[in-house]
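Title: Comparing notes on inverse folding

I've been comparing how different people in this forum approach sequence design from structure. To keep things fair, I'm posting one structure and asking everyone to reply with a full sequence. Here's the target:
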């Protein structure tokens, strides 16, 4: 996994979210980290089929009741962590979180950065167009709802 590949994923997520409206990514991406993480993992799997891709799920993020998902990309002896919806937690964050020598160290770094408790939720083993379409549909529905809520707030 290299910087160019990570930037490509970040741009695809930006385009998907910004297609619905020109609001901050923190607002657009709110409450759709599960679907965006799975969709981004499926894009990576499609391009790099040999990589092992894990969805890591955290709860109690930043000392709240919030949950959050990130992706662990295992390539040979390295584990890369990317957060496709980092803006939900860190408004100026970057998708790339870090690289580590093993999954245990990666999990510890995620706990240090986000707080809460984390575990491997699932592995993305293959790309399925039907699932991708469904994730996109859910994401766009959530984003449209986020825009409505934000417009209501602004009109008060």
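Reply #1:
Here's my take.
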């Amino acid at each position: 996994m290299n910087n160019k590949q990570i930037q490509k994923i970040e741009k695809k997520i930006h385009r998907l979210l910004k297609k619905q409206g020109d609001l901050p990514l923190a607002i657009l991406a709110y409450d759709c980290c599960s679907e965006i993480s799975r969709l981004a993992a499926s894009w990576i799997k499609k391009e790099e089929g040999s990589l092992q891709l894990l969805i890591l799920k955290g709860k109690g993020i930043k000392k709240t009741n919030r949950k959050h998902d990130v992706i662990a990309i295992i390539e040979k002896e390295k584990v890369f962590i990317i957060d496709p919806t980092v803006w939900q937690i860190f408004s100026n964050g970057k998708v790339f979180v870090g690289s580590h020598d093993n999954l245990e160290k990666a999990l510890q770094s995620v706990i240090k950065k986000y707080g809460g408790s984390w575990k491997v939720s699932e592995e993305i083993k293959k790309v399925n167009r039907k699932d991708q379409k469904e994730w996109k549909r859910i994401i766009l529905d959530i984003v449209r709802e986020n825009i409505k809520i934000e417009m209501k707030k602004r009109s008060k």
